[in-house]
Amino acid sequence: MVLETYMLGGDLPVRRLGYGTAQLTGAGYWGPRGERADAVAVLRRAVERGVTLIDTADNYGPGIAEELVAEALHPYRDELVVATKGGVVRTGDSAWHIEGRPERLRAMCEASLRRLRTDRIDLYQLHRLDPRVPMVEQLGVLDELRAAGKIRHVGLDSVTAEQLTQALTLTSSIVSVQNRFNLLDRESAAVLKVCEAHGLAFLPWFPLANGVLTGEAAAALDTVAGRLGASRGQIVLAWLLAWLLHHSPVLLPTPGTGSLAHLEENLDAAALRLDASDTSLLDALADSPA
Protein backbone atom coordinates (compact mmCIF):
# COMPACT_ATOMS: atom_id res chain seq x y z
CA MET A 1 0.00 0.00 0.00
CA VAL A 2 1.49 3.31 -1.06
CA LEU A 3 -0.08 6.39 0.46
CA GLU A 4 1.00 9.97 0.73
CA THR A 5 2.39 10.77 4.16
CA TYR A 6 1.43 13.55 6.55
CA MET A 7 3.84 15.20 8.96
CA LEU A 8 1.99 14.97 12.28
CA GLY A 9 3.08 17.75 14.62
CA GLY A 10 5.74 18.72 12.13
CA ASP A 11 8.04 15.82 13.07
CA LEU A 12 6.15 12.51 12.82
CA PRO A 13 5.56 11.25 9.26
CA VAL A 14 2.48 9.00 9.09
CA ARG A 15 0.62 7.32 6.25
CA ARG A 16 -2.68 8.94 5.38
CA LEU A 17 -4.75 5.85 6.24
CA GLY A 18 -4.30 4.71 9.83
CA TYR A 19 -5.95 2.07 12.00
CA GLY A 20 -8.34 2.56 14.94
CA THR A 21 -8.54 -0.05 17.71
CA ALA A 22 -12.04 0.45 19.15
CA GLN A 23 -13.45 -2.55 17.27
CA LEU A 24 -10.93 -4.84 18.96
CA THR A 25 -13.14 -4.64 22.06
CA GLY A 26 -16.67 -5.85 22.73
CA ALA A 27 -20.06 -4.22 22.29
CA GLY A 28 -20.05 -0.68 23.64
CA TYR A 29 -16.23 -0.85 23.61
CA TRP A 30 -16.56 -2.93 26.78
CA GLY A 31 -14.67 -6.14 27.48
CA PRO A 32 -12.95 -8.32 24.89
CA ARG A 33 -14.33 -8.83 21.39
CA GLY A 34 -13.20 -12.40 20.91
CA GLU A 35 -9.95 -14.33 20.92
CA ARG A 36 -6.97 -12.20 21.91
CA ALA A 37 -4.82 -13.85 19.24
CA ASP A 38 -7.23 -12.63 16.55
CA ALA A 39 -6.91 -9.01 17.69
CA VAL A 40 -3.12 -9.30 17.79
CA ALA A 41 -3.16 -10.70 14.25
CA VAL A 42 -5.21 -7.75 12.97
CA LEU A 43 -2.85 -5.21 14.52
CA ARG A 44 0.22 -6.91 13.14
CA ARG A 45 -1.32 -7.22 9.68
CA ALA A 46 -2.20 -3.51 9.65
CA VAL A 47 1.45 -2.64 10.22
CA GLU A 48 2.57 -5.23 7.65
CA ARG A 49 0.31 -3.47 5.14
CA GLY A 50 2.05 -0.16 5.76
CA VAL A 51 -0.08 1.49 8.45
CA THR A 52 2.08 3.77 10.61
CA LEU A 53 -0.60 5.46 12.77
CA ILE A 54 -2.38 3.38 15.41
CA ASP A 55 -5.20 5.17 17.24
CA THR A 56 -6.43 3.80 20.56
CA ALA A 57 -7.85 4.98 23.92
CA ASP A 58 -7.59 4.01 27.56
CA ASN A 59 -11.35 3.43 27.90
CA TYR A 60 -11.61 0.93 25.03
CA GLY A 61 -12.11 -2.18 27.09
CA PRO A 62 -11.27 -0.32 29.33
CA GLY A 63 -7.53 -0.84 29.04
CA ILE A 64 -7.86 -3.82 26.71
CA ALA A 65 -7.12 -2.04 23.42
CA GLU A 66 -3.94 -0.43 24.76
CA GLU A 67 -2.76 -3.77 26.13
CA LEU A 68 -3.40 -5.41 22.75
CA VAL A 69 -1.40 -2.72 20.95
CA ALA A 70 1.56 -3.38 23.21
CA GLU A 71 1.21 -7.17 22.95
CA ALA A 72 1.08 -7.05 19.17
CA LEU A 73 3.52 -4.28 18.31
CA HIS A 74 5.98 -3.71 21.17
CA PRO A 75 8.86 -3.04 20.77
CA TYR A 76 7.54 -0.40 18.38
CA ARG A 77 9.14 0.23 15.03
CA ASP A 78 10.75 3.64 14.69
CA GLU A 79 8.21 4.70 12.05
CA LEU A 80 5.17 3.62 14.08
CA VAL A 81 3.15 6.37 15.78
CA VAL A 82 0.80 5.33 18.60
CA ALA A 83 -1.93 7.74 19.64
CA THR A 84 -4.12 7.22 22.69
CA LYS A 85 -6.72 9.17 24.65
CA GLY A 86 -7.63 9.97 28.22
CA GLY A 87 -10.34 11.95 29.93
CA VAL A 88 -13.25 9.49 29.97
CA VAL A 89 -13.92 6.90 32.69
CA ARG A 90 -16.00 3.78 32.00
CA THR A 91 -18.12 2.01 34.61
CA GLY A 92 -20.16 -0.17 32.24
CA ASP A 93 -20.88 -0.94 28.61
CA SER A 94 -23.09 2.14 28.31
CA ALA A 95 -21.62 4.31 31.06
CA TRP A 96 -19.20 7.07 30.06
CA HIS A 97 -18.04 9.72 32.55
CA ILE A 98 -16.02 12.75 31.48
CA GLU A 99 -13.10 13.37 33.83
CA GLY A 100 -10.84 16.37 33.31
CA ARG A 101 -9.42 17.07 36.74
CA PRO A 102 -5.65 17.52 36.40
CA GLU A 103 -4.80 14.83 38.94
CA ARG A 104 -7.03 12.32 37.16
CA LEU A 105 -5.68 13.17 33.71
CA ARG A 106 -2.14 12.76 35.02
CA ALA A 107 -3.01 9.34 36.48
CA MET A 108 -4.71 8.25 33.24
CA CYS A 109 -1.66 9.20 31.20
CA GLU A 110 0.64 7.28 33.54
CA ALA A 111 -1.62 4.22 33.29
CA SER A 112 -1.58 4.41 29.48
CA LEU A 113 2.21 4.61 29.51
CA ARG A 114 2.33 1.39 31.53
CA ARG A 115 -0.17 -0.48 29.35
CA LEU A 116 1.53 0.64 26.14
CA ARG A 117 4.96 -0.22 27.61
CA THR A 118 6.47 3.07 26.56
CA ASP A 119 8.16 6.06 28.17
CA ARG A 120 6.47 8.59 25.91
CA ILE A 121 3.14 8.67 24.07
CA ASP A 122 3.45 10.08 20.55
CA LEU A 123 0.01 11.69 20.54
CA TYR A 124 -2.10 12.00 23.69
CA GLN A 125 -5.63 13.16 22.98
CA LEU A 126 -8.05 14.66 25.50
CA HIS A 127 -11.05 12.44 24.80
CA ARG A 128 -13.59 15.01 25.95
CA LEU A 129 -13.34 18.48 27.47
CA ASP A 130 -14.76 18.44 30.99
CA PRO A 131 -17.24 21.33 31.36
CA ARG A 132 -16.71 21.29 35.15
CA VAL A 133 -12.99 22.03 34.88
CA PRO A 134 -11.51 25.19 33.35
CA MET A 135 -10.02 24.43 29.95
CA VAL A 136 -6.76 26.06 30.95
CA GLU A 137 -6.34 23.51 33.77
CA GLN A 138 -7.04 20.51 31.52
CA LEU A 139 -4.64 21.70 28.85
CA GLY A 140 -2.15 22.84 31.47
CA VAL A 141 -1.63 19.35 32.88
CA LEU A 142 -1.10 17.99 29.35
CA ASP A 143 1.52 20.69 28.79
CA GLU A 144 3.17 19.64 32.05
CA LEU A 145 3.22 16.00 30.92
CA ARG A 146 4.70 17.08 27.61
CA ALA A 147 7.40 19.12 29.35
CA ALA A 148 8.19 16.06 31.47
CA GLY A 149 8.68 13.96 28.33
CA LYS A 150 5.61 11.77 28.92
CA ILE A 151 3.77 13.13 25.87
CA ARG A 152 5.20 14.17 22.53
CA HIS A 153 2.13 15.94 21.12
CA VAL A 154 -1.40 16.82 22.31
CA GLY A 155 -4.70 16.32 20.50
CA LEU A 156 -8.37 17.09 21.22
CA ASP A 157 -11.43 14.93 20.59
CA SER A 158 -15.03 16.03 19.91
CA VAL A 159 -14.65 19.80 20.18
CA THR A 160 -16.45 22.69 18.55
CA ALA A 161 -14.71 25.25 16.37
CA GLU A 162 -15.07 27.77 19.19
CA GLN A 163 -13.52 25.41 21.75
CA LEU A 164 -10.64 24.61 19.43
CA THR A 165 -9.99 28.28 18.74
CA GLN A 166 -9.96 28.99 22.47
CA ALA A 167 -7.68 26.03 23.16
CA LEU A 168 -5.17 27.30 20.60
CA THR A 169 -4.87 30.55 22.58
CA LEU A 170 -3.99 28.55 25.71
CA THR A 171 -1.35 26.13 24.40
CA SER A 172 0.87 25.55 21.38
CA SER A 173 1.00 21.79 22.03
CA ILE A 174 -2.13 20.86 20.03
CA VAL A 175 -1.37 19.14 16.73
CA SER A 176 -4.63 17.27 15.99
CA VAL A 177 -8.38 17.05 16.43
CA GLN A 178 -10.53 13.93 16.26
CA ASN A 179 -14.19 14.64 15.50
CA ARG A 180 -17.03 12.72 13.91
CA PHE A 181 -16.95 13.22 10.15
CA ASN A 182 -18.10 11.01 7.31
CA LEU A 183 -20.01 10.89 4.05
CA LEU A 184 -23.35 11.73 5.70
CA ASP A 185 -22.25 13.72 8.75
CA ARG A 186 -20.12 16.79 8.09
CA GLU A 187 -21.25 18.90 11.02
CA SER A 188 -17.59 19.28 12.02
CA ALA A 189 -16.78 21.10 8.78
CA ALA A 190 -16.14 24.32 10.73
CA VAL A 191 -13.68 22.48 12.99
CA LEU A 192 -11.96 21.06 9.92
CA LYS A 193 -11.55 24.60 8.58
CA VAL A 194 -9.83 25.70 11.79
CA CYS A 195 -7.53 22.67 11.54
CA GLU A 196 -6.65 23.58 7.98
CA ALA A 197 -5.95 27.18 8.94
CA HIS A 198 -3.58 26.13 11.74
CA GLY A 199 -2.01 23.08 10.11
CA LEU A 200 -3.58 20.61 12.55
CA ALA A 201 -4.32 17.01 11.60
CA PHE A 202 -8.01 16.06 11.52
CA LEU A 203 -8.77 12.43 12.40
CA PRO A 204 -12.39 11.68 11.43
CA TRP A 205 -14.03 9.16 13.74
CA PHE A 206 -16.86 6.90 12.62
CA PRO A 207 -15.50 7.37 9.08
CA LEU A 208 -17.39 4.41 7.58
CA ALA A 209 -20.78 5.48 9.02
CA ASN A 210 -21.53 1.79 9.63
CA GLY A 211 -25.22 0.97 9.88
CA VAL A 212 -26.56 4.36 8.75
CA LEU A 213 -25.99 4.08 5.02
CA THR A 214 -29.55 3.51 3.83
CA GLY A 215 -31.99 4.90 1.28
CA GLU A 216 -30.53 7.47 -1.11
CA ALA A 217 -27.06 7.12 0.37
CA ALA A 218 -27.05 3.35 -0.05
CA ALA A 219 -28.29 3.63 -3.63
CA ALA A 220 -25.60 6.17 -4.52
CA LEU A 221 -22.92 4.02 -2.92
CA ASP A 222 -24.14 0.93 -4.73
CA THR A 223 -23.98 2.80 -8.04
CA VAL A 224 -20.35 3.81 -7.53
CA ALA A 225 -19.39 0.50 -5.92
CA GLY A 226 -20.87 -1.46 -8.82
CA ARG A 227 -18.89 0.54 -11.36
CA LEU A 228 -15.62 0.03 -9.49
CA GLY A 229 -16.24 -3.52 -8.26
CA ALA A 230 -15.88 -2.40 -4.64
CA SER A 231 -17.84 -2.55 -1.38
CA ARG A 232 -19.84 0.30 0.14
CA GLY A 233 -17.25 0.69 2.90
CA GLN A 234 -14.44 0.96 0.38
CA ILE A 235 -16.30 3.68 -1.50
CA VAL A 236 -16.86 5.65 1.72
CA LEU A 237 -13.13 5.49 2.48
CA ALA A 238 -12.24 6.32 -1.11
CA TRP A 239 -14.51 9.37 -0.85
CA LEU A 240 -12.68 10.50 2.31
CA LEU A 241 -9.32 10.08 0.58
CA ALA A 242 -10.61 11.96 -2.46
CA TRP A 243 -11.83 14.71 -0.11
CA LEU A 244 -8.32 14.81 1.31
CA LEU A 245 -6.80 15.23 -2.14
CA HIS A 246 -9.26 17.80 -3.43
CA HIS A 247 -10.47 19.69 -0.38
CA SER A 248 -8.54 19.12 2.82
CA PRO A 249 -4.89 18.05 3.07
CA VAL A 250 -5.10 17.53 6.86
CA LEU A 251 -7.45 14.51 6.93
CA LEU A 252 -6.09 11.32 8.51
CA PRO A 253 -8.79 8.59 8.50
CA THR A 254 -8.25 5.75 11.00
CA PRO A 255 -10.97 3.17 10.25
CA GLY A 256 -11.14 0.28 12.68
CA THR A 257 -12.16 -3.35 12.52
CA GLY A 258 -11.66 -6.59 14.41
CA SER A 259 -11.66 -8.67 11.23
CA LEU A 260 -8.63 -9.46 9.08
CA ALA A 261 -10.79 -9.62 5.95
CA HIS A 262 -12.36 -6.24 6.68
CA LEU A 263 -8.94 -4.77 7.43
CA GLU A 264 -7.69 -5.87 4.01
CA GLU A 265 -10.80 -4.39 2.41
CA ASN A 266 -10.33 -1.06 4.17
CA LEU A 267 -6.68 -0.77 3.22
CA ASP A 268 -7.39 -1.77 -0.38
CA ALA A 269 -9.71 1.24 -0.61
CA ALA A 270 -6.62 3.43 -0.90
CA ALA A 271 -6.12 2.15 -4.43
CA LEU A 272 -9.61 3.16 -5.63
CA ARG A 273 -9.97 6.27 -7.74
CA LEU A 274 -13.30 8.08 -7.93
CA ASP A 275 -14.02 10.17 -10.99
CA ALA A 276 -15.67 13.60 -10.95
CA SER A 277 -19.17 12.17 -11.37
CA ASP A 278 -18.62 9.80 -8.44
CA THR A 279 -17.43 12.50 -6.07
CA SER A 280 -20.20 14.87 -7.16
CA LEU A 281 -22.84 12.22 -6.48
CA LEU A 282 -21.39 11.39 -3.05
CA ASP A 283 -20.67 14.99 -2.03
CA ALA A 284 -24.36 15.81 -2.46
CA LEU A 285 -25.44 13.27 0.17
CA ALA A 286 -24.47 15.20 3.30
CA ASP A 287 -27.22 16.82 5.36
CA SER A 288 -24.84 19.64 6.26
CA PRO A 289 -22.70 20.71 3.29
CA ALA A 290 -19.03 21.19 4.12
Task: Put the structure in a nutshell.
The chain contains 10 helices and 11 strands. With 290 residues, it is α/β, with parallel strands linked by helices. It has one domain: NADP-dependent oxidoreductase domain (TIM Barrel, Alpha-Beta Barrel).
Low-confidence stretches: none
Output the CATH class name.
Alpha Beta
Strands, total number: 11
Arithmetic mean pLDDT? 92
Largest sheet: 7 strands, parallel
The CATH superfamily bears the name NADP-dependent oxidoreductase domain
Strand content: 15-25%
The helix tally amounts to 10
Radius of gyration: 18 Å
Portion of residues in helices?
A: 40-55%
Q: Architecture, CATH level 2?
A: Alpha-Beta Barrel
Distance between the termini: 29 Å
Sequence of secondary-structure elements: EEEHEHEEEHEHEHEHEHHHH
CATH-assigned fold name: TIM Barrel
Count structural domains. 1
Oligomer: single chain
CA-based shape: globular
For the largest beta sheet, what order do the strands appear in spatially?
Answer: 3-4-5-8-9-10-11
Structure classification: alpha/beta
Give structural notes.
- The protein has a seven-stranded parallel β-sheet, with helices on one face.
- Helix 1 links the parallel strand 3 and strand 4.
- The chain is of the alpha/beta class.
- The longest helix has 15 residues.
- It has a single domain, classed as TIM Barrel.
- It is built from ten helices and eleven strands.
- It is globular, with a radius of gyration of 18 Å.
